[in-house]
Amino acid sequence: MRETINQWVNKLIPYLEGVRADEIGLETLPDDPGSCMLVRKGSDELLGELVLDDEGDLRFFSCFRATEHAPVVSLAPRMIRKIAEQFLRSLFEEDSANLQFSSVVDLESIYSVDFVRRDMDGIELPNSGMSFSFWKDGRLLDMTNHLGPLILINEESNITPEAALDLFMANLTAELKISRYDREIYVKGDNEFHLIYDFLTGAPDEVKMDGTVFSLAEELGYTQPGHDRLQKDGVERLPLTAASGIDEMKFVYEEHLDGVDYEVYSDEPALVDGDSRLYDPDAPMEHTVKLITGHRSDLIYSAVVQPEPAGKSGRQRIGRADAFQTAVSILFGEFPDADRLFRLRKEDPELYEDDENGEMEVAGYQFIFDRFHEDIQIEDEGVEINIDARTGKLLRYDASDRVTFNAEGLTEEAPIELTTAKALYMSDIRMRPVRARNENDGGAPVYELVYVPEFPPPGGHVHAVDAHTLEKWTVDTGALLEE
Fold this sequence. Notes:
By secondary structure, the protein is an alpha+beta fold. It has ten helices and 28 strands. It has helices spanning 2-12, 77-91, 93-96, 161-170, 216-219, 240-244, 269-272, 320-334, 338-341, 418-426, and strands at residues 24-29, 32-40, 46-52, 58-63, 100-107, 110-118, 124-135, 140-145, 151-153, 175-180, 193-198, 206-208, 213-214, 227-229, 250-257, 260-266, 288-294, 300-305, 342-345, 350-354, 360-373, 376-388, 394-399, 430-439, 445-454, 462-466, 472-474, 480-482.
């Protein structure tokens, strides 16, 4: 195996950023001789990693030196494709003849490139060939080899696309929500809140050739969590500054960050001075509390409190009910009308960690309060509160950016009927046959022919329909540069 690794390293030299062959040392593990780290001789510098299978074929290669600096130039997608094709011809000459180009995808500073195999009808077999990641200046980050035996499943009888479309629509559901029209996700997004029918979580993933409607979420047993209303009676309000201990601390640091104020308080300022963690809002520090607040406002977006070391409190761990009461008191301390604004997400709140004996024990509780307007959820807006199980005190508080958004204007006009929104969603969808990839018990890839929805130009799935303007929220597929 060592000799085979050396042969592959010699082939990969051009992709190691100017490193000579005599500079490369190999580090392998006795129990995994096919995995190898490439290091610079005489130093601890890691140059890359490669993984071979039992037959000596290269399955994975990563060039660590390519991560040392960001690209200063950006090549066109067609040039990146040519570089990937050259790699295939040089290192996998025989296999490259059976691969066809699939796509170049723009991932900010990186291009992802895929070459795949196709079935006898020309349908792509996803993750069946070679996948690459390149910096935009053409430096290779990594490659993954998916080649190998595969299984194609063809049903004896296939339903028609029209029948698949009827089954898809019959199983389609939607939920009325208030959501932000994110311009980074949607073609015509304006970053404002709208009342919508959300079809994303209610649409089936595929229709099989035997007429079975498949949903991955249902297959995994996942359902959207429900919510419990909050009761205001009997709740003793606890301001966040008191719950975090700030009222007994001194102000030690402040910084203005992207429209918010970052503040640090401590009861032992001498321990804070010079600590690099001081500048990281998410890094807990002993004897400190870190706050992120709205600039020129009293709204607190984040509070991070250092937990007490295990065993220091000397108390018996608190239960879920007591932790919830503390969290609710903090929520009402920040939002006196929290019973109108929020509902508790029905999820198990326990946070676990290993104890001294390696057994799992409850370390804390996380309660998520989702924002609602009347009976309609304002998606992705809410408050999360973590309580320490050892002390019963606050560990962390996080509120979303627009948690106080006033949604009154969005419900003054009645929404369109769900049946109308559903008809709009389905109006120009057609069902397209594709190969879905799974694995059998032996780990071999199995490709089954199924129908999936295909949307018209500009492409991308429709996630929602505006309940007032009837506009379809279409995912921006501008990142898909070539296919």
